[in-house]
Design a protein that fits this description.
The protein is mainly alpha-helical and about 200 residues long. It has ten helices and no strands. It has two domains: about 110 residues; about 70 residues, Methane Monooxygenase Hydroxylase, Chain G, domain 1, CATH 1.20.58. Helix 2 runs antiparallel to helix 3. It starts with a helix and ends with a helix.
Length: about 200
């Protein structure tokens, strides 16, 4: 039952989100790998079903608009209820999805009610760092018409501060290493195009 549920959810998300490098299925797969790395290194006692559903469904609301965490949570609550998923699981998954978005969680005072929410939050933010994170920012900017100035500001206003939001030691250590790569990538790019801050 649980195995089939996750398999079906995975197929749905793959179809709905598509192959966008920034927030499509490739992003979900990277977050999945990072999340389970965190669980392994921190030796966390988590519910695999809650974590897997949270990971696969955290961005599904992007096809509806922003705030995507809100739309993802609405969809998830209805979708999982129709599949007769335990209400406790649904509450945890919904909380994890709402909490993973830093801006939404801060604005609405969302706090994590389970370990899985913290893991998803860290994993999602780690995928926003490093060379992958650098590419994701520009990919999103090109898709959404951000100017170069807006894109650069995004690094300083959000991306370069993500390491401060990590919950686990492993996440913090990894985020600091990836942060250096993000800064190097941006500095190299700006140098090559002759852009001065």
């Amino acid at each position: 039952m649980k195995k089939d549920l996750v398999k079906n959810v995975k197929a749905l998300v793959k179809k709905v989100l598509g192959n966008s490098f920034a927030h499509g299925y490739p992003h979900v797969e990277r977050v999945y790998r990072i999340a389970w790395d965190i669980v392994k290194h921190e030796k966390l006692n988590i519910d695999p079903l809650v974590l897997d559903l949270s990971i696969y469904l955290h961005d599904i609301g992007r096809v509806l608009g922003e705030p995507h965490a809100y739309y993802s949570a609405i969809f998830v609550r209805s979708y999982l209820s129709e599949l007769d998923v335990d209400t406790n699981v649904i509450e945890k998954v919904t909380n994890a999805i709402l909490y993973h978005s830093f801006s939404y969680a801060r604005k609405h005072g969302i706090r994590p009610i389970c370990e899985e929410a913290k893991v998803l939050s860290d994993a999602d933010k780690l995928d926003a760092l490093g060379v992958v994170g650098f590419l994701r920012v520009f990919h999103y900017s090109w898709e959404n018409g951000r100017t170069l100035e807006e894109t650069i500001n995004h690094f300083y206003e959000k991306i370069f501060k993500l390491h401060e939001l990590m919950h686990y030691r492993y996440s913090r250590q990894r985020s600091l290493l990836l942060l250096e790569w993000t800064k190097r990538s941006l500095n190299q790019f700006l140098q090559e195009i002759g852009y001065r801050l």
